[in-house]
Amino acid sequence: MESGRYDRHLRRVRAEYAARRETLVAGLARHAPHLPVTGLAAGFHAILHLPPGTGEAAFIGAAADRGVGLYGMAALHHTDTDPPPRLILGFGNTSRHRIEAGLTALAGLFG
User: Fold this and answer.
1) Sheet hosting strand 71-72, strand order edge to edge
2) What is the domain-level CATH number for residue 17?
3) pLDDT per residue of the chain (111 residues) written in tens, 0 to 9
4) CB neighbours of 47 closer than 8 A, spacing ≥ 6?
5) Could you give the number of structural domains in the chain?
6) Which of 7, 9, 27, 41 is deepest in the core (most CB within 10 A)?
7) What is the residue range of 43's domain?
């Protein structure tokens, strides 16, 4: 602690996570500008809101066919109503290059 290494480490990782978040936001702005994104204020995930009527499971399956792993929020929804289709986009342990490559692979699915 006294050497300042921990503070340097925190500054470095904060900058890297901010860059990953910005890569995600910029990529979504290019590939899916019509889809709202929430949850970016904190953490290492964002929520992408798909258009109403989009099959969340089908979208996740199509993404997997393109080599991109996604999680939906429907499994986390426990009421009698159908939840809106939303995806959890994690960027905490994904490099900037892989974030951009994943969004590019999904570009045709965003409609």
Assistant:
1) 37-38, 45-49, 86-90, 71-72
2) 3.90.1150.10
3) 678 899 899 999 999 999 999 999 999 999 999 999 999 987 899 999 999 999 999 999 999 999 999 999 998 888 888 899 999 999 999 999 999 999 999 999 997
4) 37, 38, 39, 73, 86, 87, 88, 89
5) 1
6) 27
7) 5-109
Residue 18 is which amino acid?
A
Which tokens sit at 22?
């910005």
- CB contact burial 11-43 (16+ within 10 A = b; e otherwise): eeeeeeeeebbebbeebbeebbeebebeeeeee
Task: Specify the pTM.
Answer: 0.89
**Which residue reads 């929804």 in tokens?**
77
- Shortest CA distance to 82 belongs to which of 106, 46, 55? 55
User: Are residues 103 and 28 in contact, defined by beta-carbon separation less than 8 angstroms?
Assistant: yes
